Amino acid sequence: MSQTIRLTMAQALVRYLAAQMVEEDGKQVPLFAGCFSIFGHGNVAGLGEALYAYKDQFPTYRAHNEQAMAHTAIAYAKSKFRRRMMAVTSSIGPGATNMVTAAALAHVNRLPVLLLPGDYFVHRMPDPVLQQVEDFTDGGISANDCFKPVSRYFDRIVHPAQLLSALPRAIATLTDPVNCGPVTLALPQDVQAEAFDYPEEFFAPRVVHFRTLVPELAELQAAVAALKSAKRPMIVSGGGVLYANATVQLKAFVEAFGVPVGETQAGKSALPWDHAMQAGAIGVTGASAANALAAEADVILAVGSRLQDFTTASNSLFGKAKVISLNVNPFDTLKWRSLPLHADAALGLEALQSALTGWKADAEWTSKAAGLNQEWRNIVSQITSRTEPPSADYLPYDGEVIGAVQRSADSTNTDIAVCAAGTLPAELHKLWRTSFPGGYHMEYGYSCMGYEIAGGLGAKMARPDKEVFVMVGDGSYLMMNSEIATSVMLGHKLIIVVQDNRGYGCINRLQQATGSAPFNNMLKDCLTGQHGLPEINFAAHAASLGAISEHVPNVKALEEALQRARAADRTYVIVIDTDDRRTTKEGGAWWEVGIPAVSSREQVNTAYARNLDAKQNQKK
């Protein structure tokens, strides 16, 4: 008869999580780096007591916003290429529903995070409990049911024994290459505190191994035949290259066969910026080199990409090409009638390279790609090297700010840029230069404003040896900034560069590009009360949260401030006013947006007609 140990459900949960291990750099380390928590009545007594008991083996981090702390945990997992992760716990009610947006972000980006929201009393003696959402037709529903459509696995633990099946399923989902994503275990507060005799062997340390999928022979042969027929092949490198640790295989493949590479937002940093076959960003926010090559390619090998509309220019960019989708997820391999190669990115590239011996891309194509790629690098250098303002009232734009940040680095160029939404993802996708995997951290699957600072904290916790730059607009800063205080409290220094263009400049430009009048995006175009526009002092605000901060008037002053920031011992916030009108004109591609078919504005009618013309290029 096996030995048992009597624990509360919450104690068993924490003990089990703490026992999960993974190999990293030849050493066994915990799979979970700890738990972010904001306590409330739904989790403080049960789970809070359990976390306290295991605080030395399973650290608990206090945060300031439930959505933000989940973003931090997600960013940690992204920076660890899904090999390590974190848990997040909140109380019931608003604490739980605050995390739903973060769950959706993790779901879209296929990133692991374990969400542990408190829940109502199962015994229902107090009914309704404080913050309980009542459903008039179903007594079993709570606010936590909102997590179901944005969780890869959901369970409500209504008896302590259910952990025996729920926890292994949770770990299997979090570490599965196909189903990886958020897991939600709703924890009723009475059940958290209930005791049960658990088998001791359930808590034995366990090393988690990540499965890899070998390509199936028939699919491999079809992909090889398609590539052997290609004269102008191109690779689209997605996030799956990074998550599969396939950057070495990618580099070997492109060098063996002379194939240019365009990188998605999630895949950027898979190949060094100065590699001869690095064509740069691809798609709507792409480089002129990558998009020109994509338009001419006869075969596109998409590796680990979801092939979302920003990558494919709303399915208009690869019109001449046959697409091979090498992806661990069969759902992705079937998009746009691709030729599927269902496999791990590293194993798939290795198998293709072995089978393609003797084949190469057309020499003229490889030479043309190298030339276009170098032209693009020259363009990037020109844009990012501008420092001197032509006039006293000149405001820099994001590209020039990015250049200043890049110039502030030493020759090793080991900084990490973190961003999420607005204009900056386009500018960074085109202009940020990185030489190592993970040097570019962009949340663009969900494009969630407010992710940036919290995400930067997660990236710093995962890569403490790197300088982490959070590039954020004033709009995103105002949406979520509380984790500046958390970064100071935990001693994880960030350098945050706030580009203040006084509104939602990105959407304002899109609004006008679709023919509409400027409205409700820039602060000056919004409805105001008797006191007019607020005078927002971002530097003073950041200082109030414990950061060192300053406002700088121009790029030259920014460069000087960046050196002070690098030398600082805690989070440093630099604010600079930027031009809301200018963007990098080079590169880019069409993106389909719904434009009204009927309007009294001639500008809208013109934009509608232009959109119809562009739709003719969409691959049917």
TrEMBL record:
- Give its E.C. classification number: 3.7.1.22
Q: Which residues form the Thiamine pyrophosphate enzyme TPP-binding domain?
A: 421-576
Alphabetically ordered keywords of this record = Hydrolase, Thiamine pyrophosphate
Any GO MF annotation of the entry:
3D-(3,5/4)-trihydroxycyclohexane-1,2-dione hydrolase activity
Q: Domain Thiamine pyrophosphate enzyme central: where?
A: 220-352
Record-annotated Thiamine pyrophosphate enzyme N-terminal TPP-binding domain positions: 35-131
Q: Which Gene3D superfamilies does the record match to this protein? A: 3.40.50.970, TPP-binding domain
Into which EC class is this enzyme placed? hydrolase
Q: What would be one Pfam family of this protein?
A: TPP_enzyme_N
Q: Which InterPro entries match?
A: DHS-like_NAD/FAD-binding_dom, Myo_inos_IolD, THDP-binding, Thiamin_PyroP_enz_cen_dom, Thiamin_PyroP_enz_TPP-bd_dom, TPP-bd_CS, TPP_enz, TPP_enzyme_TPP-bd
Domain of life according to the entry: Bacteria
Do you know which PANTHER family this protein is assigned to?
A: 3D-(3,5_4)-TRIHYDROXYCYCLOHEXANE-1,2-DIONE HYDROLASE, THIAMINE PYROPHOSPHATE ENZYMES
Family membership: Belongs to the TPP enzyme family.
What this protein is called in its record is 3D-(3,5/4)-trihydroxycyclohexane-1,2-dione acylhydrolase (Decyclizing)
Tell me the organism. Answer: Leeia speluncae
From which lineage does this chain's organism come?
Answer: Bacteria, Pseudomonadati, Pseudomonadota, Betaproteobacteria, Neisseriales
